[in-house]
UniProtKB/TrEMBL annotation:
All residue ranges annotated as the CoA carboxyltransferase C-terminal domain in the record: 279-521
Name of the featured protein: Acetyl-CoA carboxylase, carboxyltransferase component
Entries under InterPro entries matching the protein: AccD/PCCB, AcCoA_carboxyl_beta, ClpP/crotonase-like_dom_sf, COA_CT_C, COA_CT_N
Annotated Gene Ontology cellular component terms: acetyl-CoA carboxylase complex
Gene3D superfamilies: 2-enoyl-CoA Hydratase, Chain A, domain 1
Keyword terms: Transferase
Residue ranges occupied by any CoA carboxyltransferase N-terminal domain in the UniProt entry: 22-279
Region described as Disordered: 1-24
PROSITE patterns according to UniProt: COA_CT_CTER, COA_CT_NTER
Recorded coiled-coil stretches: none
GO molecular function per UniProt: propionyl-CoA carboxylase activity; transferase activity
Organism per entry: Thermostaphylospora chromogena
Amino acid sequence: MSISEPDISPAVLEEAVNPSPPSMDRLREDLRRTREDIARGHPQAVARQHALGKRTARERLDLLLDEGSFVEIEMFRRHRAHGLGMERKRPYTDGVVAGSGTINGRRVFVYAQDFTVFGGSLGEAHAMKIQKVLDLALSTGSPFIGLNDSGGARIQEGVMSLNGYGGIFHRSVQASGVIPQISVVLGPCAGGAAYSTALADFTFMVRDIAQLYLTGPDVVEAVTGERVTHAELGGAHVHASKSGLATFVHNDEESCLAAVRDLVSMLPSNNLSRLPSLPPRGATTDLRPRLAEIVPVDTRKPYDMRLVMAELVDDGDLIELHRDWAANVVCALARIDGEVVGLVGNQPMVLAGVLDVEASQKAARFVRFCDAFSIPLVTLVDVPGFLPGKDQEHAGVIRHGAKLLYAYCEATVPRIQVILRKAYGGAYIVMDSRSIGADLSLAWPTNEVAVMGAEGAVNIIHRKELAATADPVTTRAELVDRYTRELAHPAYTAERGLVDEVIDPVETRAAVARGLAMLRDKRKQAVPRKHGNLPL
Ligand code: HXC
């Protein structure tokens, strides 16, 4: 039997020639064979998919879900479109395998588009299947995962395809902040499918096979005359390093789907469920001498903030997001003393850790995700300020920086700030200062919180003095020294209650773990309103 032809089952044929009904055994055997045929797919199309270096939808689900846990829905679904020869091509599944399964024993809802059927394109029936699993994910409070491999809206089904996408987008937005949504791109993800991905909380892409764009290279050439390859237009590298759409990139489907499993194990099932925390590891008394070595006292010297994070978390239990995009800020999900936390840290190794347009966007979205799902925030501060200049101002650094400010101001989860070294100006405020609602602020003896660094400050407030002196070098050094002693000494902020404790760097893991334990039962109700007006 070909899955692309309407078929008459042997039992029905038999009934036509023999009026007595077929036996139950016969019907069961019939059903078994039909299901097997559907699951096997069209051999040539499957071979073509494999030749493209891609797995089939069902092979992917096998990798993603716990063995034997997949429960399929609407395997027998077919489209009911007319015209353009569609009546003669009515494959079962309609190009998407949908249902539910478990990941490490926890329920998830999934769909996997089948590129072997109409190029995985989305028509009415295909869309309704995705909408159904999304509805079930929302009503059962379970994570939703989409495996995308699709040419976008099914051209032959016209407006019904567009209507189908609209229904998915609408549901996805209603589910945002209620259940985690994960999009995995394992082939073309064009047109409407690209927006499903943009609405998800996390996007995975696989190098070489994933392409994500609104319109493919042919349309680009026809409209603009520009010739681009699929990879240049929307390959994994582009979205991982330039557009910021890809949260994670992997070399192959196996490692990608294994990483999706790891991510799910770090997320709550919904906004009301408990975090998947592990038993405490005795971190509240754990000293980490390496922390005093990693960070140079000289604030101009760089270091890798990821090394600091590695010392704070439980045995490498950390997943970094957007590793290659806006690398001047590091965002990661991790566990500290068994508790799931969101880590945000300036990265002195990249652009000296300044905040700019992209870093603000990246951190803001992460903070909002953590807040929506009750994940406590730990913010590691070593920031010289916002990046100055015409490019940034014209690109809207104020608007985008305001997103991060807004996200922190709005967050009601437990919030711990750790100031490692410098924290200047607006960037100090934005990086979860006490003034915008941090619950606990810890600072290293190397902390330097001020409107700006000593050199810049001296240039402004002592301009006349420096112009008049016969020995500007000595005078400047003296003024810088005075500024540092009087305004930027380790206890300055703590004396004013804006830092709760100045801690020995080696105690940081222990102090954060104690802080998390202290804040575990934090409850804070926002003032009722329809919604705020986040500066988008
Ligand atoms: C119907 C489609 C299709 C589509 C692919 N196919 N895309 N059928 N509607 N959108 C079919 C092909 O006709 C072909 O069928 C099979 O899928 C495989 O496609 P190929 O082109 O042979 O494969 P490949 O060379 O690998 O190229 C894949 C592709 C290309 C890059 C995805 O097909 C393509 O560019 N498709 C259109 C992409 C696009 O621009 N989509 C935007 C739609 S607009 P046969 O029978 O020959 O095997 C949209 C708007 C929604 O989505 C907006 C909402 C906001």
